[in-house]
Amino acid sequence: MATAAADAKYELITRRLQEVLGGDLIKAILAEGRTPKCYWGTAPTGRPHLGYFVPLTKIADFLRAGVEVTVLLADIHAFLDNLKAPFELVAYRVKYYKLVLVAVFRSLGIPTSKLRFVEGSSYQLTKEYNLDNYRLCATVTEHDAKKAGAEVVKQVESPLLSGLLYPGLQALDEEYLGCDFQFGGVDQRKIFTFAELYLPRLGYKKRAHLMNAMVPGLAGGKMSSSDPNSKIDFLDPPELVRKKIKAAFCEEGNVAENGVLSFVQAVLIPISELRLARLRGESLGHVEEGAEADDDVREEEARKPFVGEGAPDGTVFTVHRDEKWGGPSHYKSFDEMRDEFAAKRLHPGDLKKAVAEAIVSLLAPIRQAYEADPEWQEVTKLAYPDPNAKPEGKKKPKKVYHPPPPGKGKNAQQALPADGGAVGAATMVPKEPFGEVADKQVDEQVHAAVEAAKQQ
């Protein structure tokens, strides 16, 4: 591969990352004209939220650069991570995650021909994998295993043994998925360095590791699936999105731990730049780029950058304001926006409105895909059942009316003795079928019974 083309792909692969370990390995692969292979894993526990746009936006860069990307739907890891998801729900959650992730890539018009999904249980339960896991357990110290998972595995007062296994499994995944580099958040760094240390001890090669910065949640801390106020669901309706953004922590002049501002940096501006590049015809040679989005939303959602009309060239994000407050503000970079916010020239209310509308437009094609897919809707109910729903009780069978046999029930004819005494069993007269003949027979039977009673 020509040096210029290899350099351009490496720049696309590594831009906006917080840290790269082993970048020379990737450069060497590109220089040889080979296709780099990446692995990114996610444990299907809670519902994926808007924070997933952060890694998915970066994965979009990988795909545009021609990287073969494997998404590991880590069902075994999900169970080991402090029992966040029981096995009976994991299978449905794996399906839900796959549907969401594919919908996101399609909404962005990202080529997915080099994207594959793998379930962890498809190979992590094999003899070979388990033998390697035992070999690793015989090599790794308790101290190193605990240290590696400190930022990822939930820390509790009485930790489970599964928390010590987690880092080793993630390291082995690099070998069994055949990747050249693993991608994740910077909170995964200790697991990445753990893999670099221990995989060679098993005779396997060391991989490169690429890390994204962590993005604060809407409440200021880490964006979490378990905290509904800190995240926005992919299927949240527009009014709920606006409500959550309006309530988000975004203190005037404060650029630290500002989830709204950080989301602009990590997601909205990169997507806006992606769409601007596509409008300029810059697709790195991928004829399918931009064609993944559905036809009816492609032009409106997958191609429209977050730039207002009449914005000067180079603008990547526009904050719309009323003319009495100075009119729209156009920004050519995140640094420019951050400086304006820090200087209190960009008001939190104006920023929130712009971000809310951008998110609504991002989620529109995803919600549209969900509403048009009955299978996805059914999988959602099974993967994340409503905890407040009352269990359906067994329905009582409907009573079916069966008419009594002739001579029985309310309308049964009963012969009465003349002296008011009791009538024996022989005097109970069943009524025969309807008609004059039946009535005559009944009269005769009643008369005979009365006469018999007189003679007693």
UniProtKB/TrEMBL annotation:
<keyword id="KW-0436">Ligase</keyword>
<comment type="similarity">
    <text>Belongs to the class-I aminoacyl-tRNA synthetase family.</text>
</comment>
<dbReference type="InterPro" id="IPR002305">
    <property type="entry name" value="aa-tRNA-synth_Ic"/>
</dbReference>
<keyword id="KW-0648">Protein biosynthesis</keyword>
<dbReference type="InterPro" id="IPR002307">
    <property type="entry name" value="Tyr-tRNA-ligase"/>
</dbReference>
<feature type="region of interest" description="Disordered">
    <location>
        <begin position="382"/>
        <end position="441"/>
    </location>
</feature>
<keyword id="KW-0547">Nucleotide-binding</keyword>
<dbReference type="Pfam" id="PF00579">
    <property type="entry name" value="tRNA-synt_1b"/>
</dbReference>
<dbReference type="GO" id="GO:0005524">
    <property type="term" value="F:ATP binding"/>
</dbReference>
<keyword id="KW-0030">Aminoacyl-tRNA synthetase</keyword>
<dbReference type="InterPro" id="IPR050489">
    <property type="entry name" value="Tyr-tRNA_synthase"/>
</dbReference>
<dbReference type="InterPro" id="IPR023617">
    <property type="entry name" value="Tyr-tRNA-ligase_arc/euk-type"/>
</dbReference>
<keyword id="KW-0067">ATP-binding</keyword>
<protein>
    <recommendedName>
        <fullName>Tyrosine--tRNA ligase</fullName>
        <ecNumber>6.1.1.1</ecNumber>
    </recommendedName>
</protein>
<dbReference type="InterPro" id="IPR014729">
    <property type="entry name" value="Rossmann-like_a/b/a_fold"/>
</dbReference>
<dbReference type="GO" id="GO:0004831">
    <property type="term" value="F:tyrosine-tRNA ligase activity"/>
</dbReference>
<keyword id="KW-0963">Cytoplasm</keyword>
<dbReference type="GO" id="GO:0006437">
    <property type="term" value="P:tyrosyl-tRNA aminoacylation"/>
</dbReference>
<dbReference type="GO" id="GO:0005737">
    <property type="term" value="C:cytoplasm"/>
</dbReference>
